[in-house]
């Protein structure tokens, strides 16, 4: 029997009309992309890849236009930000991975376990539980066998971590 997925997330994007009046430009549910390498589904809610501070006059561009794939987990080279949503199936585990970004992860549904490179695990149980990831090698796992886990992440581009002169580059372990 297939288990029901997590509740969908709605994406509301504001903008301005030709007279400068603020309005709603986009109001729609997220479209999910299978990420088989991570045993998850992802959706780009909004991407800023033209530098920071961003340009609020980009009203003709949909910031979720960039396709989502494991090689596209962070903003492109240079300053940028990425608002992403992720769903992890019951019992699912992502690949260990590291990005050159500072990530603000917020649990929205279900439970998640953060698995760090040193083997330590942190269990997130309550919607709103948050993790700030600063370039660490990590994975996520869903401890539930019956409920999807869902979280949103704001990734802000960052210089890679350097330890004793060695750069810890972005990576995904298969």
List keywords for this structure.
174 residues, mainly beta, globular, Jelly Rolls, OryJ/VirC-like, six-stranded antiparallel sheet, 15 strands, three-stranded antiparallel sheet
Describe it.
With about 170 residues, this protein is mainly beta. It is about 0% helix and about 45% strand. It has one domain (about 10-170): Jelly Rolls (Sandwich), CATH 2.60.120. The protein has no helices and 15 strands. It starts with 9 loop residues before the first strand and ends with a strand.
Short description:
The protein has 174 residues and is mainly beta. 0% of the residues lie in helices and 47% in strands.
Shape: globular
Could you give the distance between the termini?
A: 28 Å
Please describe the biggest sheet, giving its number of strands, its sense, and whether it closes into a barrel. Answer: 6 strands, antiparallel
**Unreliable runs, pLDDT <50, ≥5 residues?**
none
What radius of gyration results from the CA coordinates? 17 Å
Beta strand %: over 45%
Overall helicity: under 10%
- Please list the strands of the largest sheet in the order they lie side by side: 3-4-5-12-7-10
